[in-house]
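User: Here's a chain of 263 residues. Predict its fold as tokens.
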Amino acid sequence: MSSSVLIEHANAVAILTLNRPHKLNAINYDMADTLLRLLDDIEEDPTLGAVILTGAGERAFSAGGDIHEFSRSVSAGEAVVMREFVRRGQTLTARLEAFPKPVIVAVNGLAYGGGCEITEAAHLAVASERAVFAKPEIKLGMPPTFGGTQRLSRLAGRKRALELLLTGDTFSAERACTMGLVNRVVAHERLMTTAQELAERTLVHAPAARSAIIDAVTRGLNMTIGEGLNKEAEAFARLVPSHDLSEGLTAWIERRPPIYSGD
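Assistant: Prediction complete.
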């Protein structure tokens, strides 16, 4: 496995670290492919219930796509750059967004371009007070390509998203929190502890219920309210015969902590 992404386990949490600090953790093709392979492994591992994604070094979560590698794909033509860059990036962010286990981004520094798009796609995000965000693709003469034109507007609203997309201006962790891009801003030295605590707060609940909520919310955002309500009802219906729903109800009635089997 490539060293462009490091993995370690902390209890039932997989911690993935983007590991190109000398390049501000720019996302090259190897890093994107490695992330996708690791996510496949984590999904299949029943001992892992959540993911924390952060960046190596003190300066950046990720400064975005690897411009040198991307430029070579652009030079090779539309078909090549669409396959090598755009589809790869959109596959990664879509995978994070729909991942059946909670994904928490711990933004430890710069989150520009693709780094910001990964943050947008993740289920939850905690930012260091040192974090700085930007949508700088317009400065390269292009729009975002990993989903940034779509997800940011859904999170922040059309006008706030367009201001950032059309100017390329940087914005603070506090503004990112106000817009709904991150859940909270914490002292830098508390970043990973806070992300771990947040992950563990999700892990006390039934795995199937966590996955059902993620699926219903992610899919429902692109549906009408009526379709979304049907999706929510379907998610619940699938859990009706499960041990964990029965256990959750029984434990509540008996006023004791539930013991989930994970089915």
